[in-house]
Backbone:
């Protein structure tokens, strides 16, 4: 059985589709009910902060995928992520299941050049410090031989159904509505974007290959383009003018005074006014996987989720 902790989010949904398409038995675990008509998919309620609930939900698992997301607040992250990670580690020990943790790149901090699996942790934000700490918690257990676990990391992503990405919200959705796009930070800087359907496929592949355990993997992501290039590709696909305005740090901070989630983005602004280059060549070579191009990914979104209004 394949168990997804933190089901219902964009990556979890993409992974669920891959597992379902390949006739796998899946258990979705979340606090809120998830309706699914697939006979191979069941749902179980559990709070990841409650070890007993998580253990009960994960019993019988061969592979456990962690796709959880918390409210975008550094204080909540500090309080809850260490508890969740310890619970997950303990569940992996108790069930002997393989563990695959879906992660971001906050722990790297500002990197001069490409981010790789060997990039040292140098977080420049409070949320980055939390991510570094829980990643170390997990891999320390791996190094001790206590569990079989891997970390799957992605860059900023796009292609969500719930607009849970700055590119989806500020570029795709705006052009679909024939509005000007917005860009977070400096549009002349390179920025990698991971395509959600690719994340689902890549997580599925890791789950199918035990030999991939006990290491860090960067999920397949197309080579970085500048914000301006990404905007121009999108505008061409939507057949609109590539009009946009860039949001600087002060504007972000000012808006954040009225929106806590936006304020949580301010400390991450370094990712948007410097080059943000994500290297996934290790995964691409190991699994012979070609990431979806931005052209193809954006076109797919324009034809399905973010269809032009007119």
Residues:
């Amino acid at each position: 059985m394949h168990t997804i902790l933190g089901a219902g989010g964009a990556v979890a949904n993409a992974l669920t589709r891959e597992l379902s398409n390949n006739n796998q038995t899946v258990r979705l675990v979340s606090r809120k009910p998830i309706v699914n008509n697939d006979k191979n998919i069941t749902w179980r309620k559990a709070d990841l902060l409650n070890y007993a609930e998580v253990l009960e939900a994960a019993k019988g698992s061969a592979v456990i995928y962690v796709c959880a997301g918390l409210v975008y607040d550094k204080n909540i992250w500090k309080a809850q992520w260490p508890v969740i990670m310890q619970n997950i580690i303990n569940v992996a020990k108790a069930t002997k299941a393989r563990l695959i943790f879906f992660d971001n790149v906050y722990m790297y901090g500002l990197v001069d050049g490409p981010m790789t699996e060997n990039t040292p942790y140098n977080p420049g934000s409070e949320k980055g410090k939390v991510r570094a700490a829980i990643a170390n918690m997990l891999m320390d257990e791996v190094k001790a031989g206590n569990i079989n676990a891997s970390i799957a990391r992605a860059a900023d992503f796009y292609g969500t159904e719930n607009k849970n990405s700055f590119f989806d919200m500020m570029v795709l959705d705006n052009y679909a509505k024939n509005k000007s796009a917005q860009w977070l930070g400096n549009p002349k800087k390179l920025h990698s974007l991971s395509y959600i359907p690719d994340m689902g496929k890549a997580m599925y592949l890791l789950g199918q290959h035990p030999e991939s355990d006990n290491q860090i993997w960067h999920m397949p992501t197309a080579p970085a383009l500048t914000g301006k290039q990404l905007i121009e590709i999108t505008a061409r696909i939507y057949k609109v003018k590539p009009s946009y305005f860039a949001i600087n740090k002060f504007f972000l901070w000012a808006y954040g005074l009225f929106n806590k989630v936006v304020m949580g983005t301010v400390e991450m602004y370094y990712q948007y006014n410097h080059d943000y280059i994500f290297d996934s060549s290790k995964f691409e070579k190991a699994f012979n996987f070609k990431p979806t191009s931005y052209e193809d990914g954006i076109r797919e979104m324009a034809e399905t989720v973010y269809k032009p209004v007119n």
In short: The longest strand covers residues 98-103. The chain has a mean pLDDT of 96. The chain is about 40% helix and 15% strand. The first helix runs from residue 10 to 21.
